[in-house]
Amino acid sequence: MTDLPPASNQATDSDAAEPRRSSSAPPQLRSAISRALSRRKAELQSQTSAEQVPVDPAIEPSVVAEPAAPNPMRQERYRVAASRAISRQRPSSEPQQANNGATSRGRDRTRTRLRPPTLPNQPLPKLPVEPPVRRELPPAVVAALQPESLPAPEIQRPPLWVAFVAGLGWTAMLVWIFFGGLSPQSGLWVRSLFGIASLGLGLTTWLPVQWALRLPALTWRGTVGWAVIFWVLAFVPAPTTTIAAGLPDLPIYLLFLSGVFLASNALVLPLVYVWGIRRYHNRAQRFDVRRSHRQAAEAGIFCSLCVLLAAMNIFEPVTVLLLIAILVLSEMVILSLQAK
């Protein structure tokens, strides 16, 4: 077994540049690799020769083309930066410069790069000032926004002959009920005539009051309530038992109680509304229709409960005083909550 000669540690440039050729490589690949190596060697030799050529000072310099014009946007930025630097050097801007910190100055500089070019300080032309056009709002919108600015609703007085006709109608109706011989056995034409008379009396009485005070839901409450009371008194037989006994007299009691509630509500509502106008000085409290309706409803509940206590045979002064105290305290609590 023979020893192989040791490989040399230093290799030539040709051996380092040329890759290891394999006996199994095709001839076309070998020729392509050799052509590429030769071209690379030629390029390296041309570069080294160009670097080694000395520069002769006697050679005239070649004509160089003029540089391209600078960017207009960049010139504008330089001009803006120069103008701002000059403005910072003025005495008027010294306090402002002392107050600003390093971070704010850097922020201002970055912002000035993005801002458009500044214009010289010139007074702007004054444009003609047109007077503002005032548009009138609907009364409902004005009432919602400024309720105090609207004039107080006027209380209109109906003609005196309407009151005279209503008084005659009420007198005739009461005389007809108590002395007209009306009973549950009355005929259909008598009942129809009585219903028409009750409807006409209600419209003649309550419609002018609603028109004068501008109170909604007054006419139908007064007309229906008093018509129910007159009808029960004229054509419905009197109950034979108390309300606690139940049927068959319970529907009669309930019908009469509903009529008493509506009639007393319609009777008290104008009085409470006029009392509020005279009692309160604030406009929002004087013409508060909801307060008037609530107090009238409390009066109707009081009258209905009094009739109910009389039907149950427990109508006494103590119970009446308790009802009055409960209703008055509840109204005071509601008024105090609204004041808050």
Q: In short, what is this structure?
A:
By secondary structure, the chain is mainly α. It is built from 13 helices and no strands. It is elongated, with a radius of gyration of 55 Å.
Topology diagram in text:
Elements: H1 13-17, H2 27-52, H3 72-88, H4 94-99, H5 102-114, H6 139-145, H7 160-179, H8 188-213, H9 218-235, H10 250-279, H11 283-286, H12 289-311, H13 317-339
Helix pairs in contact: 7-8, 8-9, 8-10, 9-10, 10-12, 12-13
Give the amount of beta strand, in percent.
under 5%
What's the overall average pLDDT, rounded?
Answer: 75
Report the structural category: mainly alpha
Distance between the termini: 120 Å
The tally of strands reads 0
What is the general shape?
Answer: elongated
Spans where pLDDT lies below 50 across 5 or more residues: 1-23, 93-98
Over the alpha carbons, how many angstroms does the gyration radius reach? 55 Å
In words, what does this structure look like?
This protein is mostly helical and 340 residues long. The protein has 13 helices and no strands. It has helices spanning 13-17, 27-52, 72-88, 94-99, 102-114, 139-145, 160-179, 188-213, 218-235, 250-279, 283-286, 289-311, 317-339. Helix 8 packs antiparallel against helix 9 (218-235) and helix 10 packs antiparallel against helix 12. The termini are far apart. Mean pLDDT is 75; it is low at 1-23 and 93-98.
Characteristics:
13 helices, mainly alpha, 64% helix, 340 residues, single chain
